[in-house]
Amino acid sequence: MSGELQDTICAIATPVGEGGIGVLRISGEKAIEAATGLVKLRSGRPLESVTSHVMYHADLLEAMPVQEPQAGLVQARNWRPVSSLAIDEALVVVMRAPRSYTAEDVVEIQCHGGPLVLQTLCEAVIRRGARLAEPGEFTKRAFLNGRLDLTQAEAVLDTIRAKTAGSLRIAQEHLRGALSSEIDRMREALIRLLAHVEAAIDFTEEDIAFIRPEELAANLQKTIEELSRLASSCREGRILREGVTAAIMGHPNVGKSSLLNALLRTDRAIVTPVPGTTRDVLEEVLNIRGVPVRLFDTAGVHSTEDPVEQEGVRRSLAVMEQAELLLIVLDGSMPLTEEDHELLARHRDKKRLVVVNKTDLPRRIDSSALSSSEHDEPACAVVCISAKTGDGLDDLRDRLRAMILRADFEPGESIVVTHLRHQSALLKAKEALTNAAGSVGAKLSGEFVAMDLRAAIDALGEITGAVSTDDILDRIFREFCIGK
After folding, report:
1. Is the peptide bond before 307 cis (omega within 30 degrees of 0)?
2. Could you tell me the pTM of the whole model?
């Protein structure tokens, strides 16, 4: 990020498009100065004199060049030069440092949310000395100014992108510092151990035992177990944050699109009795028992001479390769065919759930044949439903959640990490402490233990930003939108 902290920045903080309210945010040492002259308070008070964190009614006026009457023309009785242009009326709040999101002086202007109004307002602020903020620059300044640590900064974005109540709950816990506190607690414990080890090194000739080897080993082992538990939570944390990809696969006319519509409770996909109606891949995000699921409805997998259907089958196969979970839909009103068995034999390395559809019709499928040894197919969980009547859909949702998350996992019951960056640092710290414990057990010199303790402390510091590099910061904040 090329921006400097001494610059005053501005950006539109509300989404692109029309809205009832639009917000422009200005932050920096000269934020109030950049808004002065543009913001005219209805009370007549100068902007720099207002009380911090109080909303004021104002007009937004842009200065215009004074127009002189043309030579030779008689000036009309009511003619006068125009010196300002009314942009809008607004509510304005000044938040003085350090009591603001960025810990800098901040001015927020709430006006009507028309694109032209906001663009005109933003350009007027830039003409007064501010520059357009880069993606994530407001949050990056909050981090650099000590307002947030890195886990809290990441939680800001996770809160914005949360798709389920579970993912929102975890993001809010991180934003309130739950993960930071846990990391800081472990890091402080390791710093105390390091102090004991280094003191023993410095005073080795004094024959003073600052910490007994067995006590040191026990403390190291306790922290190793805590790191393991926290690192192992990353799978569930990432699933709740990012979701999982699932593909509905099956032959034409088995009810794949009907299943998508039933889960969405809306007619998203076109459904007809004609086989091959779906010729492209449809994608939707569902909330399945608190888990965000990117669900793909694929074209029926079959042999065809139609070039359009061939392209649809090719795309379907590509989606199936990338999906983490497969829903294999079969027609329960028809006997299993050799093509069905071939479909069941595909993608043995993936999690799969067989969905027997059309239970509202007379059943002709042989469920026992789904795991027939004659065809050497791996065992799959089976659920029977009717996409037409909705029968069995609750059981399907329960099965899907059980396949995705641990049965005993509930968001909010314990601290969960949600980013691979967190997990990587935790595993790095665990490896360093394992080496330190090995050195203690082998009765090696304290210098070896101290070196590994420092490595573990630094690894934990990477999570909260106590130890950071420009590369880490750029990777994190470039995911943000402009204005946040």
Report:
1. no
2. 0.78
